[in-house]
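Model the whole thing, not chain by chain.
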Amino acid sequence: MSEFLQFLINGVAVGSMYALIALGYTMVYGIVSLINFAHGEFMMMGAFIGALVLHRLQGTPLVVALLIAMLASGLIAVVTELVAYRPLRNQPKIFVLTAAIAVSVLLQNVARLVFGSSAVAFPASFPEGSIAFDSLGIWIEYSQLIVLCLSLVLMVGLWLVVNKTKIGMAMRATSQDLEAARLMGIDTNLIISFTFFVGASLAGAVGVLYGMQYSVDPLMGVQPGLAAFVAAVLGGIGSLPGAMIGGVLIGVIENLVAGYLSSTYQSAITFLILILVLSVKPSGLLGRMTVVKV
Amino acid sequence: MLEAHGVNVYYGAIHALKDVSLRVEAGSIVTLIGANGAGKSTALRALSGLHRTSSGSVKFSGQELSSMPAHRIVRLGLSHCPEGRHVFPRLSVKENLELGAFIIKDKAAIKASLSHVFELFPRLKERLNQAAGTLSGGEQQMLAIGRAFMAQPRLLMLDEPSLGIAPILVQEIFRTIKQISVSQNMTILLVEQNANLALKIADYAYVLETGRIVLHGKASELAADPRIKAAYLGH
């Protein structure tokens, strides 16, 4: 039992990071119907930029580095949308999807060129130690606790922006009916840029958290990016709560599989579950059935 | 108030509007009638900036609109209630109406328009917290008109308010359109396939055929015109 609880805790901690990345996938999909395959690279960029700031400007508080990383990831996403996606918006969807894959490869190689191809240690790390719950036989690492708290703060922040602000209302309107939103006086191009910015800045924050726990390398966005994409689809693409639940679920499943079976099967089983869920409920756990208009 | 001159619009290779010129006088109801596919909706879309014109000029209170993006045109006081209603389906009736007033900063003014919309369409007040997508077609149409009204426009453009709606509600909606025109002194440009209804409440009418204005005149005169009777009024 304590083993199971421990896997659960580890899973939730990783899953909350997947959830933050998945939110970006789902927000962008909700507003421009694009699976942004470069999204994992925004996370990687966040990690590198956070590391760079801490390395070059010694003494920068971690929180400031985190904010700079979020800002930079967001801006990279805004530029990506402007340069690579927007010109293709009225073309068949496959064009912009291909562009997203191209941007993904491009950013990986830019990172390789600028930062080198070997993994580097992040200049900062979480405080060592953990809180033990002896009666249950489990413990929570400080790093996990920090990741969980920060994820929670960012998710609540996102929820407030989307549901309680005027720009959030404009985002919801734009995602439901872009033309009608324009008729309301909403600058939908600005809203699309803003959505990319917010989604990528969440990914950038995860990049820093990831870097602090593991290391930083140009391909570090691939695995979490894929896991988060699965999470977004599992939860129901386009749904914010779906992305959160999907992310945590994938994290938990991965940890249970790695713990009880073998980490070799981690991804295989994740995808197997995805296939099963989609064959029973193609819209995902919290997704809406999309009605194709004739 | 609104003056379009020699407007041409293309959808790819299709020449959808050919040298369309029309005038909407302040305080009047002008209707644009014509068969399905004649280009009526395209005309409204060109005026509100949803679709680019390839040539011609559109002037609203003396200001040139033809290269202005849609979200700026509505700020000038031209509000477009689109064909097929296009309410935000997963937002509540209240949120839809609030979005209608997206460009209005003055909170008190928004409140006043909101209570006015409830006077015009009491049903909307009963459904305030319901998701717009769950409303009936007629109620959605009321919401779409109410939402366009919330922008406090000087010119209200309505596209096919009778489309796909129970006949009894169509009568109610058209009475309300007339009421908005009279009580608010609102200028209205009405696109309608149901020429009978449209000519009854309009002051002036344009007839569109395959992208071209073929006839225009006082609504009462057009209603009596044998050509119109034969083609559009089913006599």
